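User: Okay, second chain of the day. Same drill as before: sequence in, structure tokens out.
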Amino acid sequence: MSAFQDGVCFVSLASIREAHLVLPAIAQTLDVREGANTTVAQSLQAHLYDKQLLLVLDNFEQVLDAAPRVGELLMACAQLKVLVTSRAALQVRGEQEFPVPVLALPDRKQVASPKSLAQFATVDLFIQRAQAVNPAFRLTEANAAAVAEICQRLDGLPLAIELAAASSKILPAPVILARLAERFELLRSSARDAPDRQRTLHASIGWSYDLLAPEEQRLFRRLSVFRGSFNLDAAEALCTAATPCALPVLTGISSLVDKSLLKPHPEVETEPRFVMLETIREFGLKQLAETGEAAEMQQAYAAYFYKLVQQAERQLWGAEIAAWVQRLDMEIDNLRAALTYYMDSAQGAEQRLQLAGSLWRFWEIRGYSLEGRTWLTKALDQDPDDYPLSRWLTLHAAGNLASDHGDYAVARKYYDESLKLLQNLLPHLPDPADVRNARYGLANT
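Assistant: Same drill. Structure tokens below.
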């Protein structure tokens, strides 16, 4: 801090919700008073004009409308520096953003010793906070894997890890891990000096959610149905379903990124994709259920990916096969969720057969044949007689994947059953492509 000859001034804005109170709060901390003929802004500018001072403004996200006033203060005071902590960018000239990344996480795929796990920032934080409430806590062979998984499940979020570690006072790490399914109930702080928004994980995320405009809240809730990552096209499909969002989707997503409720996918450069941390997503799903939108959004979500797979099915044999395989690969978590939705839906009989049957080529190319066979078997077992054309597609797909695995007896069983359906279906297939597929299946049986 030697660069700041006049020191550092910390201003907490945690209790302030009105933008017009920000400058008075700064003035109060600096012991600056209004003159008879000067405003607070003018008095602050006069006081700070030649000061080499670092002004720290904490919790700015709820008073973002005050950002232009802070910008004016900076313009008037050449040597003044302002450090702002906020869940949203101020969007003022000269602003430099420094996103706070999640802490380093251990790799699920690697088995590590307690000593090596303790080198990860997330695990080290858990150990420190656990020992603060239970001095006897140690990272051991018996609990190391559970602690590492807790940190993974909580997305490396420091507050979430601190709250989980606080349970170490009465619960061993494996029990904490087992109870994370109810994470919003488990992750509570008993610290009396903690701000209300930091007493529970639910309250911490709720704090950011409450600062959103109503249309931003609606967009956030709807985007929480996505698994893994999603692109703009998928987001727009959900936001035009049922009651459309009044907010342009790209504008809304940009705002949610600024407010740290979404983040750009770090590994995809071909198209903009976005990710919602699982802990935040679960909060969004709770809000979606409470507003009565969940069933409608889940249906729209599954329908979007059903249509995407139908579009992709024939492209997986054409010149753009590589692009479509990559596209489906990026949506693998969403495809699994759509399959699960239709498998569990009483009205999803045809869709589960079609969706599973249409994905077989993708599963074959990507080496997911075993997973594909599991989905196909589940779909066939649920609907033994309904929708014969869709059932033929699924039987044929199941036979193909079984044959790929060298499981020829099972493949023959599927092909034999498909033959019986084909004998009745061939005269009634309206689409020439379906006829070709049917004859191909007949030849292979």
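Residues 294-315 form the longest helix (22 residues).

User: Thanks, on to the next one.
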